[in-house]
Amino acid sequence: MGLTQQARAGHYAYSVLHNSQTTQTAPIDARSFDWHGWLEQEKRNRTMYLLLLTDAAMVMYFNAPAQFDPLEIRLMLPADDAAWDARDELECASALGLHGPQAQAKNITGTRRPTQPGMRDAIRTLMEPAAAFAPSSTNA
């Protein structure tokens, strides 16, 4: 099913905000935001992380062999709760900051960023003894 990678352009779950190559090279335009694609990719991300968590629990509690290597997962961490809990496209885009910082009034505890760090980058940061996440780069 390709859950360990983001959906490619043309896939029903493709989201420009989940594509790390696009978000690093250019600012995101609110008009190009496709809420349904973003929502579907976010569902795929959260499903994969649930499978990874279940796999880790099976390893720890039942001594089963691991089925996933966390470094094979090429997804961003799940989005802020304010964006995930949004009821419509406008509310989600505002929580992600696509309509400017003044529109993020409801997103007071999250990162207030349109994208999250990738899983591989987060693991590498956690494994470095002196490394730390930049402020507001991820939420609890």
Automatic annotation (TrEMBL):
UniProt cross-references to InterPro entries, sorted A to Z: VerF-like
GO MF, one example: DNA-binding transcription factor activity, RNA polymerase II-specific
Main subcellular location: nucleus
Record localization: Nucleus
Keyword Zinc: yes
UniProt entry keywords in alphabetical sequence: Metal-binding, Nucleus, Repeat, Zinc, Zinc-finger
GO cellular component, one term: chromatin
UniProt keyword annotation of Zinc present: yes
Name of the protein described by the UniProt record: Transcription factor domain-containing protein
Organism lineage: Eukaryota, Fungi, Dikarya, Ascomycota, Pezizomycotina
